[in-house]
Design brief:
With about 280 residues, this protein is mainly alpha-helical. Helix content is about 70%, strand content about 0%. It is found in: Nucleus.
Amino acid sequence: MSQASNFVKKLASNDKPTRDAALESLKKFLISKSSKTFSISLLDAEKLWKGLYYSMWFCDRPKAQERLAENLGKLYSENINSNEVFLRFVEAFNLIMIKEWSSIDQWRIDKYYLLIRRVLRHNFKYLKSHQWDETLVNDWVDVMRRTILSGDAKAPVALPYHLCDIYLDELQLILFEELEEEELDKEDPGYLQKYENLMRQKIEIADGVPVLKLIGPFQILNKEAKLKPLREKCKEDILDDERLVDWAVIEDKSDSDSDEEDDGVAEKDDDDEEEEEWKGF
């Protein structure tokens, strides 16, 4: 794609009007090329995301950063309608985050955390708009598993840590975005009935979504990650999250099962006592 280099230069400009105009041009370009016959190489997708990365780099004010993060996330859900382009863009974003993470200073780190959150949100929007197609979900999970959630030493540990923090929050937001949730008052005589109706609706919605497949990379990290704190975080923040029980994705564990599992974890921990552990960011 010959346009890639031109887009990158303008997207990475330190002049805001130039960056804004380039982003609008990129949106139109992606929309015009969103047919099934259009393809994009991973290298060109990475070039585009390198330019978008610097668009965020030069964006200074909190409100502007929030708008830009949302607009960059929307590239996935509003400007791409080709599964191949979508998956390439997902992989390109992940690879750029991995490559550039060590260069992000403490004053810019929060806006990239926000960008990752919004990109993930609109990834889920795209999957939902395609009715959680099995092949598409499998391919998307595979991309995540090979990049940010690989457990590879090349992927900064802050990235899977951050995904553990936000993953189910963003999935929940997209799963139930059409569900009107009124604020429930426990003092209301009809509270229990309203709560049960709400949970029943959530279970019906979640039943049509491959949630277990979507959390698969965290199950693998929980077993295979070299860093014990990362294994534990995957378990605590994803696999043991009560929402998975509420949505009937997993069964509620009995006390006896929990005791047996605790024994197994303790035994594994004993084996890992001598493992060198990560001490923090």
